[in-house]
Amino acid sequence: MTDPSVPTALPPLPSLDTVRERLALIFPEGMAQRNYFVREMAARTVFVLLYLGAVAGTGRWARPNQVTRMSDSQAAMTSDAERRAWASASVRKQAGNQPGRWFADTTREPIRDETLRSALLAVGAAVERDGVAITSSTPRWALAPDFAELFTVPDAELPGRIDAWRAARLSPQALARIALARGGVAASQADHAVLVRFPNGETRRLSPGRSAEITRAVVEAFAPRFLVDPGVLWISDSREQVVARDDALARRVGLRFDRQELLPDVVLVDLGAPEPPLFVFVEVVATDGPVTSERRDALLALLRAAGHAEAHAAFVTAFRDRDDAAFRRAIGAVAWESFVWCATEPERIIVQRDTMHRPARLTDLL
């Protein structure tokens, strides 16, 4: 929809393929809720807003149901006159019946709530029109000018423009998360061992791969952040089964490990816990294998057999990122009374609290 004061010329229109490709570059792996930014619905939403010329400051605005009413045949009509004509036609009530439309009319809600509000608006890539009632059908959405420009700048300028946009629009925390995720992906694809530095300063090498990268993060980022006086008792490796075992430390805490036992990927110990030692059993999930209830029970039995109390055990499932398929697939199986930690958000931890046996109010949990 266009205000009377809107200039007649529309901004350049990239192809839908270009929009898809550039969204993936602008929002790389590691971005929180990345799927909302790069999936097909997002690409088509951005394309339609560009098709309409709905860019903040131009006076042009869009409605989510206009995205649902776009079609391949209409998207191929790219002259200014054709784009302006469709902008007017697409807001009419009868416009929802055209053949070949991209989405059913009911899809306007996830376009509005997920793509526009939860994703693009949250990072400053889109703006919502002020002064429009929630129940109004008045078009209210537009792209931020600096974001819209990323889809039409020449390829040679794109990397620098994307970097500048991220620096201006994404929070330091979001930028750090992207950097961690991208660094992990690059390293996991390298054809060399992953070097892990233990709390005591020693280093060990693990077979390359995503599991090794998460393991390194557990030892180098999780342990010093969440344990008082950390040590590493055990690390498993895909090729060698056991790559590191600190026998001296194990003897100090009275725990004996057997290669045949079903040990987790990492066993940490906190010698500075209020009632030391605290054993921290960590499962590293690159594809599957979280700390399930059954796994937790088996590890508690192992601990009891070594003469330690259950209160001296903690259980952690470590993922690379909350947006990974591995996280979405495994999170439902993670045991209660355990923790979840992601390498790309090292300062945060998820507590899986079971209040059935330990009733608590929200005020108790804060």
In short:
39% of the residues lie in helices and 15% in strands. The chain has 15 helices and 11 strands.
Which sheet architecture does the biggest sheet show?
7 strands, mixed
- Unreliable spans: 185-191
Task: Tell me the overall shape.
Answer: elongated
The number of helical runs is 15
| Rg for CA atoms | 26 Å
Strand content range: 5-15%
Question: Percent helix among the residues?
Answer: 25-40%
Return the structural class. Answer: alpha+beta
The tally of beta strands, per DSSP, is: 11
Spell out the helices and strands N to C: HHHHHHHEEHHHEEHEEHEEHEHEEH
Describe the structure.
A hairpin with a 7-residue loop joins strand 7 (266-270) and strand 8. With 366 residues, this protein is an alpha+beta fold. It is built from 15 helices and eleven strands. Strands 6-5-7-8-9-10-11 form a seven-stranded mixed β-sheet, sandwiched between helices. The chain has a two-stranded antiparallel ribbon with strand order 1-2. The radius of gyration is 26 Å and the shape is elongated.
